[in-house]
Amino acid sequence: MAAAAAAAGGASRGLWARLGDTRLALWCRALLRDYSSSLRDAAAAARRRPALTAAAAAALAVTAGLARSVPDGGSLESAAVAAAAALSRLPPGSRSPRAERRVLRLLRLRERGRLRVRNLGLVAVAAAEPHGADAALYRARCPHLRPRPWERGALLDVGFAGRWWLLEAALRDPDVNEEEFGHLPEPLRRLRPAQLRSERNERLHRERLRAVVLSEADIGEEEPLSLRAR
């Protein structure tokens, strides 16, 4: 009789009522209670320390923005192609050898499939792989035999905040050929910005072109002594 009554009571409760007594439902309710209590505690702490909460929220927003702005491999290839097009418009004698070597290396690695870009969260690291992506060699497939990005000769560029910094540094003065000044002494090979944009030199240049105006006193002082004696 008791078993029949229990079966009749379970049948009358319905499907959702029976699912609510399962272990999964109990675990979900406990998880929701924990999360709701954590949210209430966080809201109370935010009301007690609003400045610290605002700083933490701003830091999280900045971190999320930097993570979203990390460049990828396609942006590095596009930047290398654009840099090569910009260098091709310059005369060969006035191109920067440093910029030309870096751009040509990136293009060669891109053509051979050896240019790899790894996203590390907030920054991206571009490295040169010893083998292409389609190589079936054991040295190319084994992850323990691959060179690390920070090893000598493997690191190519560092991407941060949507920019590739080493490539931009190499293209800072693409129309200056540093090798033209190799025969000069070391102090004369490089000029400081103050020497290139000197206000004193500009002022002296303007004074050189200014007309000389002589007063009557100056003209009288320059008269010959024979005229003064008369």
TrEMBL record:
Gene Ontology biological process terms from the UniProt entry: protein insertion into mitochondrial inner membrane
Top-level taxon of origin: Eukaryota
InterPro entries hit by this protein: TIMM29 (IPR019322)
Coiled coil region boundaries: none
Cited Pfam families: Tim29
GO terms for cellular component: TIM22 mitochondrial import inner membrane insertion complex
Protein name per UniProt: Mitochondrial import inner membrane translocase subunit Tim29
Organism: Chloebia gouldiae
